[in-house]
Write a structure and sequence with these properties.
The complex is a heterodimer of chains A (about 350) and B (about 325). Chain A has helices at about 1-15, 15-45, 45-50, 65-80, 90-95, 185-190, 205-210, 225-230, 235-265, 265-275, 280-305, 310-340, 340-345; strands at about 55-60, 80-85, 100-105, 120-125, 130-135, 140-145, 165-170, 195, 215-220. With about 350 residues, chain A is α+β, with helices and mostly antiparallel strands. A seven-stranded mixed β-sheet of chain A has the order 5-6-4-7-3-2-8, covered by helices on one side. A two-stranded antiparallel ribbon of chain A has the order 1-9. In chain A, α4 (about 65-80) packs antiparallel against α7 (about 205-210) and α11 (about 280-305) packs antiparallel against α12 (about 310-340). The longest helix of chain A has about 35 residues, at about 235-265. Chain A is elongated and about 105 Å long. Chain B has about 325 residues and is of the alpha+beta class. An eight-stranded mixed β-sheet of chain B has the order 5-4-6-3-2-7-1-8, with helices on one face. The chains are: A alpha+beta (about 350), B alpha+beta (about 325). At the A-B interface, α2, β1, α6, β9 and α8 of A face α1, α3 and α7 of B.
């Protein structure tokens, strides 16, 4: 066994070109594949945010007279489709605290909030244990909620983690009574930051009817050629991978031709080896030194070069190196078994 | 002919791999060098007004498409007109403040041809409503060529020498607009992926950029492997060359027998498969037909050169030099 090891090393040094070219090709392909995957992983739009923007609302008029109607029409249309919230200047003044108005499904705003058919007020991150709050001449029942980092991830990004504020869940009431509808920004903000369920049925015609005569117009994100071409993502999946597949195919063809040539050159030596009692297994082991040494060097090289990268991506690299060399080893055994020359020397088993 | 099928397969797949790598480098070159003005996509088309017809752009309104951007460039970009029914520039570049005071182009503006404009200057200018400025976009590529205001397209009169840029994510819409503009006395100019590309400059640029460097480097390695593979092919046929020589074969005739069929197959197969790749990857294709044929010719010259050199080397290294050809 030790003899085979040294004989294998001797073969490698005699045919250093094959060894070197094999190392270079497998290493380059691994690096390109892994860094391409890494780039695709980071620049894929859904990786950075799981919320996809479908529509944008653009102000095309400065006429704010139809706003009250627009906000109510929006609330009606929006019912059962998701959640929308906006900071209300009108309530801020009345309560003396930052106040958000929520409509639709309140669970999307905070999991502790409940869907009710009456107006409900919540205090977020409050210290007191009050169960009632008075503003505008009326008393409303008050419940406590706590905002934490994970509830603030995603769409609700403009609220601080430890801020104390009120949330008014408007249910069964017209939203236009609770916000400054004359302020175009509030109405725009309410509608533009609305979060819809993934399976919510959105009829574009309905949306356009709703905006008819108002100061807003609909802009569809998927219509935007400028937005759609940004990012390297398309480059990588579009033709980096096909190119790499072709290159792997080239490496296999190259290895096949070179290995046959190698066997032809080593014919005399292997004949002597077989005449002295070696089997085909020994020749395979002897040549496997090539793969074994490549594997060691490539694993070490890849480990060294990818120290800072995330683990799943590093394991892709190791798998690729292992897989390619394993396939080449199988190809090698197949060529060796089909080789007539060695069979002739060895005779029939 | 010993294992010529492997040499052929190898040659063709190296051609395709290198073609894709060069295409990637060309894409990076086009993308990074911003050969497209005003942040337009690779689909964009350009037209120049020749004055032979009315130049009326009102027909765009009757298309009623929202996935369309049309730009009119006057006086080398110092003054531009914008038709943006999808509100692409607003949703990409607006900071969305002061709603109620400022707004974007509406359909009524376009239909009425009102003289209104959006400020796109690098440093925000005072928005005088009386001057027809209705909004402001910050760090917008519309200011790339020095324009400070993008006016309503239908308020401007096209003059001879003005450029019109059209962009959309739909080829059907682009075709409709193209027909419309050609009828109105505009002539198509090359831009985007149609524009002529300096292949050597693209490859040189690609070597400075990380991913395209890797790919081009790998493609170069494949070309080196090609040297080794064709060398092995000739080496394996050495005894046959000797036999040919003994029976009176001339050197060139022998090379013709062993290299000719392989070369022809590679030429035809790489041409057909290369064109097929161009169709399959048409979304991400950045080479022009001229670039492709130049590349194809260069590759074939490279292959032919390899055959000649390797055949010559085998001939030189042959022990009985006199016996191999005369």
């Amino acid at each position: 066994m030790i003899d085979l090891f040294f004989l294998g090393l001797k073969d490698i040094f005699r045919y250093f070109r094959l060894f070197f070219l094999l190392l270079v090709s497998v290493f380059i392909i691994t690096i390109i594949f892994v860094s391409g995957t890494l780039s695709a992983f980071y620049s894929e739009p859904s990786h950075t945010s799981k919320f996809n923007k479908i529509y944008d609302l653009v102000p095309v008029s400065t006429d704010m007279t139809g706003n009250r109607d627009l906000a109510d029409r929006f609330q009606e249309w929006f019912n059962g489709k998701g959640m929308a919230y906006v900071s209300s200047q009108y309530l801020n003044k009345m309560t003396g605290m930052t106040t958000y108005v929520v409509t639709g499904d309140p669970v999307l705003f905070h999991p502790q909030m409940e869907k009710t058919d009456h107006l409900q007020v919540y205090e977020a991150n409050g210290v007191g244990g009050e169960t009632e709050i008075r503003f505008g001449g009326n008393a409303y029942p008050l419940k406590q909620i706590r905002m934490e980092a994970e509830t603030l991830s995603g769409p609700i990004s403009d609220i601080g983690e430890n801020e104390t504020f009120l949330v008014v869940y408007v249910s069964g009431k017209k939203i236009s009574d609770w916000i400054n509808y004359e302020d175009g920004f509030a109405v725009w903000r309410l509608m533009n930051t609305a979060i819809l369920y993934e399976d919510a049925a959105i009829n574009e015609g309905e949306l356009k009817d709703m905006l008819e005569g108002s100061f807003l117009a609909l802009s569809k994100y998927s219509d935007n050629p400028i937005y759609n071409q940004l990012g390297e993502y398309k480059f990588v999946t579009g033709y980096l991978y096909p190119c790499l597949l072709l290159m792997i195919f080239c490496v296999f063809l190259f290895f096949r031709m070179f290995y046959e040539h190698f066997l032809r050159q080593m014919y005399q030596e292997y004949t002597v080896h077989i005449l002295y009692g070696a089997g085909l297994r020994d020749i395979v082991l002897r040549n496997s030194m090539l793969m074994f040494l490549s594997l060691l060097i490539l694993f070490f090289g890849f480990w060294y070069i990818s120290r800072g990268e995330p683990t799943p991506i590093r394991s892709i690299g190791y798998l690729l190196i292992g897989g390619m060399l394993g396939m080449l080893e199988l190809l090698m055994v197949w060529i060796l078994c089909r080789s007539d020359r060695l069979k002739n020397v060895k005779g029939v088993d | 002919m010993e294992k010529s099928i492997y040499l052929t397969l190898f040659s063709v797949s190296v051609f395709l791999a290198v073609l894709l790598a060069v295409n990637y480098a060309a894409g990076i070159y086009r993308y990074h060098k911003k050969s497209l003005p005003y942040g337009l996509s690779f689909n964009a088309m350009a037209f120049e007004y020749t004055g032979s017809s009315g130049g009326n752009l009102q027909g765009l309104l009757s298309l009623e498409k929202t996935n369309l951007v049309v730009l009119l460039e006057k006086m080398d970009g110092a003054e531009i007109g914008l038709y943006d029914p999808g509100m692409v520039y607003y949703s990409s570049f607006s900071t969305e403040m002061l709603i109620g005071s400022y707004r974007y182009f509406s359909q009524e503006d376009y239909a009425g041809g009102r003289m209104v404009g959006v400020s796109v200057a690098k440093s925000p200018m005072n928005l005088g409503k009386d001057q027809g400025i209705i909004s402001s976009l910050s760090s917008c590529p519309l200011a790339d060529k020095g324009a400070s205001v993008a006016w309503n397209l239908f308020a401007l009169e096209p003059e001879e020498g003005d450029m019109v840029y059209v962009d959309s994510n739909s080829k059907a819409v682009l075709k409709k607009v193209r027909d419309l503009l050609l009828n109105e006395g505009y002539e198509e100019r090359e831009i985007g992926t149609n524009a002529e590309l300096d292949l050597t400059a693209a490859i040189r640029y690609g070597l400075t950029y990380r991913y395209s460097f890797y790919l081009l480097f790998a493609a170069g390695t494949m070309l080196l492997f090609h040297v080794a593979v064709s060398c092995i092919y000739m080496e394996n046929n050495r005894k046959r060359f000797l036999l040919h020589a003994l029976y009176g074969g001339k050197r060139l005739a022998v090379l013709k027998v062993y290299g000719g069929p392989v070369f022809l197959t590679v030429a035809v197969a790489s041409l057909i498969l290369g064109c097929l790749f161009g169709i399959v990857f048409s979304e991400n294709w950045h080479l022009t037909a001229g670039n492709f044929f130049a590349f194809w010719t260069a590759y074939l010259a490279y292959t032919l050169g390899l055959y000649f050199i390797n055949f010559g080397l085998v001939h030189l290294r042959s022990r009985n030099r006199r016996a191999v050809g005369k």
